[in-house]
Amino acid sequence: MKSICVFLGSSVGKDPAYMKLANQMGTTIARKGLTLVYGGSSTGCMNELANAALQEGGTVIGVTVQSLKDKEQFHKGLTELHVVPTMHERKDLMVQLSDSFVAMPGGIGTFEEFFEVYTLRQLNYHNKPCAILDVNGFYAPLKEMMAVTEREGFLKHSFNEWVLWSESPVELVDMLIQGKD
User: Fold this and answer.
1) Residue 32: how many CB atoms within 10 A of its CB?
2) Which of 14, 86, 92, 154, CA to CA, is 20 to 30 A from 123?
3) How far is CA 149 from the centre of its chain?
4) CA-CA distance, 27 to 156, in Å (whole number)?
């Protein structure tokens, strides 16, 4: 395990716990000597995550698309910032650069990115661990939805067997490093 890709919101959210969690995750990744891969934004929780990792001396790689880079502010202090033409190429590069994937609180983009890497794993395109870092029950509705999906026979493998869950960045990163999934 050398790198962790984190999907999370570019907004701060309504609860200060989201920014705190982003800070803790960035700090944890850097202190464990791992590379952080993320969307490259300099706003919201994404910015907090990157800044925390950089402040600890970590390596931070941002991956974005040109159309977003033209509209938004991207972090100028990253170790690397990759700019690709399409969202498909962006996600493909994130998969290539990462040894595991974590979803933190975020919006529809976060959900879409996480479910794509989870789907790719189910289809055996990779065997990299997928995880959810929860806070204040943000992902409780997803956990219930996936339980219903499994109960109704629409999942071949248990979501809870293939997706690690924790409310602690340190615990989650340790599980990823140990390969527990």
Assistant:
1) 17
2) 86
3) 23
4) 35
Q: What is the pLDDT of residues 105-134, one digit of tens each?
A: 999 999 999 999 999 998 999 999 999 999
Q: What is the pLDDT averaged over residues 20-24? A: 98
- What DSSP state is assigned to residue 74? B
Helix (H/G/I), strand (E/B), else coil: 41: strand
Tell me how far apart the alpha carbons of residues 100 and 123 are, in angstroms, rounded to a whole number.
Answer: 16
Between the alpha carbon of residue 93 and those of residues 5, 61, 62, 145, 164, the distances in Å are 11, 11, 10, 29, 23
Nearest by Cα to 168 from 100, 117, 97, 102: 102
Per-residue pLDDT tens digits for 85-98: 999 999 999 999 99
Find the angle CA(54)-CA(58)-CA(63) to the nearest 5 degrees.
75
Residue 66: pLDDT band by 50, 70, 90 thresholds? confident
pTM higher than 0.70 for the full model?
yes
